[in-house]
Amino acid sequence: MRDLAARAVQRARAAGATYADARAVVSRTQEINTKNGAPEGLSDSTDQGIGIRVIAEGAWGFASTASPREEAVDEAAELAVRIARASATLSAGGVELAPQDPCRAEWSADYESDPFSVPLEKKLALLLDADKRMRDVPGVRVAAGEMTFVREEKSFASSEGAEIVQARLQSGAGIHAMAEGNGEVQRRSYPASHGGGNANRGYEFVETMDLPANARRVAQEAVALLSADPCPAKVTTLILDGGQLALQVHESCGHPTELDRVFGTERSFAGTSFLTTDKLNELRYGSDVVNLYADATIPGALGSFGYDDEGVPAARVDLVKAGTFSGYLSSRETAARLGIESGGAMRASGWSRTPIIRMTNINLAPGDSSLEKMIRETDDGIYAVTNKSWSIDDLRLNFQFATEIGWEIRNGELGRMLRNVTYQGVTPDFWGGCDAIAGEDEWYPWGLLNCGKGEPMQVMWVGHGVAPARFREVRVGVGADED
Amino acid sequence: MLGEAKCLELLAAALDECDCDQSEAILVAQNSALTRFADSAIHQNVAETDAMISVRAVLGKKIGVAGGNQLDEGSVREVSQRAFELARVSADDAHFVSLPGPKPIPPVQSFAQATADCGPDERAQVAHAIAAVAEKQGCRASGSLAAESAEIAVANSLGVRAYTPVTEATLITVVADDDSSGYAEWRGTNVADMDAAHVAEVATRKCVDGRGAEAIEPGEYAVILEPPAVGDMLFMLAYMGMGALAFQEGRSFMCDRIGEKIAGDNITVWDDATDPRQLAWAFDWEGVPRQKVTIIENGVARGPVYDSYTAHKEGKESTGHAFPAPNTFGPAPTRLFLGTGDSSVEEMIASTDRGILVTRFHYTNIVHEKHTIFTGMTRDGTFLIENGKVSKPVKNLRFTQSILEALSDVEMIGREGHLVEYAWVPALKIGKFAFTS
Predict the structure, then answer these.
(1) Chain B closest CA to A267's CA: distance in Å?
(2) In the CATH scheme, what is the homologous superfamily, with its name and number, of domain B4-205?
(3) What is the ipTM of this complex?
(4) Chain A contacts of B120, Cβ < 8 Å?
(5) How far apart are the first and last CA of chain A?
(6) Prediction pTM value
């Protein structure tokens, strides 16, 4: 595949491209799903192809093919140039790229145990064990488990002389229980909703989750939620666990700091951003304790890599420093417009997609508090746990989230369980109310599989390192429960 | 194009290699292209050639699925063998009965050569045309034109043999200036049917009319939802339980309510992938002919759609709504209709003392699935109606609203249907809609 990438670049240059890069990708994905004591899906798929990105006449073109035949790769390279020439007929001016020394490197994510070498029977048995423990709890209607493993090998070459080979192994797993009754459907998940926990690690990551040990609690909570009190409607103190806070960071910091959104190239689909360039180093995004940063170098985190899909080395970039908006996720093209170096955030979901700016690992720096201390210091509030749903406007300001479960906080202690917990806010106001963040020992890099962006749609895997945090004056209990 | 004979030959080879009790093979060969523009300039322009072959192997009640994207003989054989191996080491699924048997598949028109031939120059011309309309009004155009063609084939060891070529073209645009934005879209099988200038004019008019938007207090308002908003709401309702798996697991809004009134008399919802007004598609991912299924009839819940697995659980037949195996989501409607009425949007506005006109929603999501409550924002054209007239543009609002309550309070229904996403829907006037911030 390395040779094909080099060939594609040469062919594109010969066809008239002033710049060309190519990514040849080979991947394998295994997914295991169980439900109510039986396998619900066992699949193992392979995928390969090459994507060629070019600049010709100052404009972008991209073409891709699944075929490894040299003639097909040549055709794709030539098509990419023809497409670029069509783009040039309605161009904003010549594309400029921020300078980047071409890298020649190999990178691979560390792991201990290759999940594809672990017998499928063993993986299935683990999920079915957790499944049985969930179904042993009276009232559980659905018990489900899942595992996902991905191996990806990628060769990148550019007309500037870059040659990069990367290998990544991804492992993930999770369980959930669903109970139904009293007009309610309630779910509890572990360790996270929407795909469980995921990391650039081997099967050892799945084993550390200890799914069976958490199965009974998850099931009991799902059943208990059916008769729990609804979340009250009021303005109060809100403490978020890491799983929910990861989504909060994702939607209200990760997406609005994408510089392509800021420059308007996502306007017709996902929207733009309130973090316009005039606000850089000026806007109070949050309180003094809020420090957010992108870091693609965290070992094992799902959004880590060696080099982005433009060949820029993985980097750490400050996004919010002591509450002040201070940086962007960027590409070589957007960085050039801003007169900065690329932050190395260009990623493609596969060989068939052109790279666009994506989150890497977008993290909230740990503070000096703890979950226990934050609760103890709170007279009246809600502790909200595990994301259930999310929605945010096209500027990334007005949001509403729901969590699977919550607990009332009264006089420094957790009280009654609450169902259908929702909260609503506006991004700078919400982060401005953040007055405490738990410390490093509670900081954890959550992995999300379902970040959607771009046309054609690209679903990306990203990371969010967070510790639980506390927010004052938050509106909760918005329209979810009609009791 | 591989052609029907070649596609079915590849599938037959895959089935031959799979030494199982039953087996199924799916093939997709596709060419996709998309041109994106923003600020009246093309910034992304892509093309993709890909294929997918997938094999479902059944050994007793044990099932495995393998896939790949290479169509040479050795790769197809390897996929089949991998599926067999997965099935061999799997465990029984007691609810599995059988793959579906063959049924006649009535042909539908699902392919247009013009869409398959829509190249980068043609797509650029559309972007030019839209930008020109926007710029006449001092606006800038963003959007995308996608043109996709594919061959889809399904075969199984019980004799199913299904093949269809399909095409789909989609144009969306947001026309904006520093103060406002407007949206319009078109979708269809044949790109030659697309009127890009009309799409641009609708979006540009929304943008111009939206200048100087003011904030208004949230609360309950009468609302007129234009088709893009109605389509979004209808698919959110479908997601909350129009499929049999959701129904069987007790999480559908229709559970224990079949035959009961769940919406207004004037609301009928059905799924029909064979209707030429939709992006037609003759069969599902199990090779079962797609049936017209009425889900809500004059406000009464009639039932969900089925694939073979969920149908067998109830001793029924599949309605042709399967997704590719393995499918943990279950069957779902993909070509929805909401019955039209006898009003125009202008008549709806004229009948409204105070209300809000909504062009489209943004980022909708479920808040409470049993109560069919969803949340989201308005976007790209939100206007206040006072005394029977559009009085001013307003800033975007968040809503948190029960869909079935909204569909129980529909006062007027548009006489024209529009294809938005994959729903054929009219505009609706709803008596009360809850805007929460």
Answers:
(1) 7
(2) PmbA/TldD superfamily (3.30.2290.10)
(3) 0.96
(4) 61, 82-83, 85-87
(5) 60
(6) 0.97
